[in-house]
Amino acid sequence: MSTIEVDPTAAIASRIRAGREARGWSLAEFAERSGVSKAMISKIERDETSPTAALLGRLSGALGLTLSELLAGAESHSRRLIRTHEQPLWTDPATGYVRRQVSPAVSDTPLELTRVELPPGAGVAYPAASYAFIRQMIWVLDGRLTFIEGEVAHRLEAGDCLALGPPQDCSFRNEGDAPCAYLVALVRR
Questions:
Q1: Which residues, including other chains, have CB under 8 Å from residue 30's CB and lie 6 or more apart?
Q2: Alpha carbon of residue 31 to chain centroid
Q3: What is the CATH number of the domain that holds 28?
Q4: Element (DSSP H or E) covering residue 12
Q5: How far apart are alpha carbons 102 and 93 in whole angstroms?
Q6: Range of the domain at 18
Q7: DSSP per-residue codes, 22-82
Q8: 73-87, 157-171, 173-187: which range is least confident on average?
Q9: Quick one: which of 46, 67, 122, 123 has the most CB atoms within 10 Å?
Q10: In DSSP terms, which residues pair with 157 in a beta bridge?
C-alpha cells in the first residue's frame, strides 16, 4: 500500500496560532521566545508560507510541544494501531527530508517514534529549546548520519544508536551520497 501525503500546512498554521493564543502571547512575545521573526510567524499563521523543519523546531520548542505534536493530524487519541499507509508524512520544503510519524497518537503513552529519511547532502538544525522537555535516542536504520550535539560530532552508521545528552543546539546531517534513514524515539522529561 502506498501512503498519500497530504499537505498539512493549513493544519500546522492553525495549531501554531492556537498554541500562541492559548498562552496569551502576542506575536512579539512569541517571536522573542522562539527566535523567529514576527513577520515569519505571521506568514506561517496565515498559511502564506510552508515552514521549514528548523522553523518548526524553534516554534514547537517555544510552545513546549514536540515537533510530532505540532505536526500531528486530527487522528483519534484512542487508536492503538496505526497502519503504515495511515502514518502521517511531512516533507521539509527546504531540505526534502521526510518525517513519518510511526507511533499512534495514544494519549496515555509517553513514547513517540518518528522515522526520518534525510536526503544526501541535507541537514537540519534545531535549537536547545526543542529538547528542553524531552529525552531522545537516535537509531540509524540505513546510511550514515552525522549528529552534531553542541560542539561534539557523532558519526553514526546503520545500526548505531545514540542517547542524546543535556539539551544543546544540534543538527542532523547526511554528508554521504545515499539517503540516510533513522528512527527518533522520545519521551517527555
A1: 20, 36, 38, 41, 59, 62
A2: 19
A3: 1.10.260.40
A4: helix 9-22
A5: 20
A6: 9-71
A7: HTT--HHHHHHHHT--HHHHHHHHTT-S---HHHHHHHHHHHT--HHHHH--S--TT----
A8: 73-87
A9: 67
A10: 144
pTM for the model: 0.79
Taking the C-alpha atoms of residue 75 and residue 63, their distance in angstroms, rounded to an integer, is: 21
Specify if 1 maps to a domain.
Answer: no
In tens, the pLDDT along 125-151 reads 999 988 888 899 999 999 999 999 999
Per-residue pLDDT tens over the stretch 21-77: 999 999 999 999 999 999 999 999 998 888 888 898 889 889 988 887 777 654 444
- Other C-beta atoms lying within 10 Å of the C-beta of residue 21: 12
Q: In this predicted structure, what is the pLDDT of residue 9?
A: 73
The C-alpha cell that represents 138 in the structure block: 537516535
Nearest Cα to Cα of residue 138 among 99, 185, 173, 178? 185
Alpha carbon distance 133, 96 (integer Å)? 27
CA pair distance 84, 101, nearest whole angstrom? 10
| Domain stops at, among 25, 43, 71 | 71
Asked if residue 184 and residue 101 are part of one domain, the reply reads yes
* Same domain, yes or no: 129 and 179: yes
pLDDT band at residue 7 using 50, 70 and 90 as cut-offs: low
